[in-house]
Amino acid sequence: MANKKEGSLKSQSLPLKIFIFISLGFIGIITFAAILAVYFFGVKGLFTLTGVSYHSIFTIVKFLIYCFLFGLITDIVLLTFKVLFMLFPLQAYQIQLLLFLTNTYLSWLVVHFVDYWMINIAIDTWIEIIGAILLAAIDYIIDFNKEKMID
């Protein structure tokens, strides 16, 4: 029992506590920055490969933020459709297909609306559609894995 108290943070000196706190803070900041950099430059690279034109890096950040915010609204709409589809006498695969198609349409609607609304970015319609299909597929896979883990 005495060994546990000797190794605890409470028994350490103040300079060591400050050093540990600052070190953990730097590790956290570096990790957060690395995750943001990979995500941000991954999206920037994807935009470059698909021919999306934009005026500045800040435009990409605004685009992603707006898509996320409007995506929250469409998630509520998708949940409403999920409840409505459950009311009809449909097979499970039919409900899943209808939810996938609805999710694809709502994802496309978000990307298209944000693209139309923002003047500083231009995305071709076929890129919007492919992106919406990919977003819906990723959402379906994540939801399927969540349900599988619960069972």
Question: What attributes characterize this protein structure?
Answer:
151 residues; mainly alpha; two-stranded antiparallel ribbon; 83% helix; flat; transmembrane; Regulatory YrvL family protein; transmembrane helix; membrane
Can you describe what's shown?
The protein is mostly helical. The chain folds into 2 domains: 1-50; 55-151, no CATH class. 83% of the residues lie in helices and 3% in strands. It has 5 helices and 2 strands. The chain has helices at 2-6, 14-50, 57-87, 92-117, 125-150, and strands at 53-54, 121-122. The protein has a two-stranded antiparallel ribbon. α3 runs antiparallel to α4 (92-117). The longest helix has 37 residues, at 14-50. The chain is flat, with a radius of gyration of 23 Å. It starts with a helix and ends with a helix. 9% of the residues are buried. The model has no long low-confidence stretch (mean pLDDT 83).
Query: Which word captures the global form?
Result: flat
Radius of gyration: 23 Å
Question: Largest beta sheet: what is the strand line-up?
Answer: 1-2
Q: In which range does the helix fraction lie?
A: over 70%
Mean pLDDT: 83
- Helix vs. strand class: mainly alpha
What composes the largest sheet?
A: 2 strands, antiparallel
Order of helices and strands: HHEHHEH
Q: Proportion of β residues?
A: under 5%
Distance between the termini: 41 Å
List how many beta strands DSSP finds. Answer: 2
Number of helices: 5
Number of domains: 2
User: Segments where pLDDT lies below 50 for 5+ residues?
Assistant: none
